[in-house]
Amino acid sequence: FLIQPTCGNPVTGVSVNDAVQELMLMIDAAKGASAHRVIAVTPWFGYSRQDKKSTGREPISARAVAHQLEAVGADRVLTMDLHAGQLQGVFDIPVDHMTALRMLTDYFRHLDLPELVVVAPDVGRAKLNAKFAEKLQSGLAILTKERPAHQVAQISHVIGDVKDRTALLVDDIIDTAGTLGAAAQAVREAGARRIYAAATHPVLSGKAFENLAAAGFEEIVVTDTIPLRRGAPENIRVLSCADLLTDSIRRIFTDDSVSEVFGGENQLF
Asked: Are residues 146 and 221 in the same domain?
């Protein structure tokens, strides 16, 4: 089992490309040393967001990385909350697609927030947020989003009742936090009293810290699939994926059922 989140790390000077290449070389070394099986454990799967062509003559980078893993000799991949679950289909080897749904819903269940409504920041995340709301037995609202330019988000409508309620915005990734900031402003203008946010992967690039600080969240809950860089806002809470991943690794090693870890509820994107 080779554990390598394919993300950059400013503290160590490792880029995304460095992490991907290190993983390839480790797999090759393991295969060359006659390893019976090699499982790549990538809590954050680098390039997963480039899973289709947005414009002409673009690469489908997620597919290219998947093919590289297969070519170098990986027998299986264990990852978490892919940006699009259909990405599993580009692999010809088994992919265990884990999800942070349970740990995030457990955290907010213990907070016991009053008048909670789960809010999808865009229509594409409605399925994830509906499952989140079901787990928390809360209301559900959906925002409609437009992108007039790259990394620019505008919220046009709030579908659902958030007035005088506690809003919880749920997404799979927080990148520049432009969408999250715009969503927080929209639900606040619609009357929400308190606003929380949750996501699996804290990419937090560009002006993410400034955008989150200006958004006025009570708390932003993420996991440790990607290490936080220095200077993160104090209201970011990081949950560990260690138990989830170790349980999954143990089940793969013993040929037990991996789907029992998340009850089969991992196809959320």
From this structure: yes
pTM (2 d.p.): 0.90
Do 204 and 82 lie in one domain? The reply is no
Our answer to whether residue 145 is catalytic in this structure is yes
Whether 167 and 210 share a structural domain: yes
pLDDT in tens, 143-170: 987 765 555 667 778 999 999 999 999 9
Work out the mean pLDDT of the chain and round it to a whole number: 91
pLDDT tens string 121-145: 988 889 889 999 999 999 999 998 7
Only one residue has tokens 């390893």, namely 35
User: Using a CB cutoff of 8 Å and minimum separation of 24, what contacts does 134-141 make?
Assistant: 135/101, 135/102, 135/105, 135/109, 136/105, 136/108, 136/109, 136/168, 138/168, 139/165, 141/117, 141/167, 141/187
Catalytic residue among 52, 135, 145, 163: 145
Range of the domain at 38: 2-99+243-261
Residue 267 falls inside a structural domain: no
Residues 138 and 195 occupy one common structural domain: yes
Instruction: Cite the DSSP H helix spans in 73-177.
Output: 101-111, 126-136
Residue 138 maps to which CATH number? 3.40.50.2020
Measured CA to CA, the distance from residue 74 to residue 37 in angstroms comes to 8
Per residue in 40-53, pLDDT tens? 999 999 999 998 88
Question: What b/e readout covers 120-146, taking b as 16+ CB neighbours within 10 angstroms?
Answer: bbbeebeebbebbbebbebbbbbbebe
